[in-house]
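A reminder from the course coordinator: this example appears on the midterm review sheet, so study it carefully.

Given structure:
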């Protein structure tokens, strides 16, 4: 595992839900609606015209600009957790009440913006990157490829 004392975080934001997770990044280039945007039984993005339609959020570090829609957003993330299809962690550029509630009810370690030095997680991290999310400290680290 990464010795956090030896590496500088690539992002530093605010803790929304505590926890530490490692995994593969899935970067969404547009906001997402969980209600009708993610199938909780397959974990796939089903929102029509979404650039990442067909991608699975299961066990990924999900990175996205913000959530959209209604209070159903948190219900769908809770269903993702109950079906075993939830992301390992989330990094959200612009945290709002929809995304914060979804993180809390689904118990997904989450970091929200604003980020130090005005960094944008969607520009800083790429899909497929291996990262460590220390949501408790609000830090994201890039992991070395093995």
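Designed residues:
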């Amino acid at each position: 595992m990464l010795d956090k004392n030896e590496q500088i975080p690539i992002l530093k934001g605010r803790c929304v839900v505590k926890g530490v997770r490692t995994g593969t990044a899935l970067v969404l280039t547009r906001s997402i609606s969980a209600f009708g945007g993610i199938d909780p039984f397959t974990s796939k993005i089903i929102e029509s015209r979404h650039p990442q339609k067909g991608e699975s959020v299961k066990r990924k570090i999900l990175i996205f600009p913000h959530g959209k829609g209604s209070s159903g957003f948190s219900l769908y993330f809770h269903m993702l957790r109950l079906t075993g299809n939830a992301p390992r962690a989330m990094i959200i550029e612009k945290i709002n009440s929809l995304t914060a509630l979804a993180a809390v009810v689904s118990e997904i370690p989450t970091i929200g913006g604003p980020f130090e030095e005005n960094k944008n997680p969607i520009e800083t991290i790429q899909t497929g990157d291996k990262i460590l999310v220390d949501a408790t400290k609000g830090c994201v680290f890039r992991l070395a490829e093995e």
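Residues 26 and 127 are 5 Å apart (CA to CA). The mean pLDDT is 92.
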